[in-house]
Amino acid sequence: TSVMVLACERLRDWDPERLFENVIPNRQPLAPGQIHYRDFMTASWVQPSRIQALDPAWNHFNLVNERTKLVHFSHVRSQPWKNPDHPLTDLWERWLRKALVDGALRRRELVREILRGHVHRRFLRILPWSRRTARLLDRVAR
Q1: Beta-carbon contacts of residue 125 (< 8 Å; ≥ 6 apart)
Q2: Cβ neighbours for 5, distance < 8 A, ≥ 6 positions apart
């Protein structure tokens, strides 16, 4: 599953911590109570009667149009935060800026993820810096 909507009031028997603790790599032998990652992600452990189809607009893969409710950047190496040439980088950057302005993401969190290589260094330029630092970062981010 890429996207799930959960009716929490119906999930009183779920213990997310226990569920995640029991997920193991696909190639490892299963012990009682464990589940392989592949089976966990396809929700094969859930009773089929508890699963309903979800409008595909809630899981558009690398696509944004008038119906899109949620875009899923599925190709790890080409995700817009890693690859500035991705066609949806500008869209992603607008939402990144909004997250910073709204306080959902802190400046130091973004810098940390850039230093770790999880986010492209190009995005350093959207943070407020002194003019001197901004010019230096602009050269580095190219």
Answers
A1: 134, 137, 138, 141
A2: 54, 58
Mean of per-residue pLDDT scores for the chain:
87
Element (H, E) at 53: none
**pLDDT score of 6:** 83
Can you give the pLDDT at residue 75?
78
Maximum distance among all Cα pairs of the chain, rounded to whole angstroms? 61
What sign does the CA torsion over 96, 101, 65, 50 have?
Answer: positive
Contact in structure between 3 and 70 (CB atoms under 8 Å): yes
Identify the H or E element spanning 19: helix 16-21
Cα separation of the two ends of the chain? 37
**Distance in angstroms (rounded) separating the CA atoms of residues 45 and 117:** 35
Q: Packing angle between helix 89-102 and helix 107-115, nearest 10 degrees?
A: 140
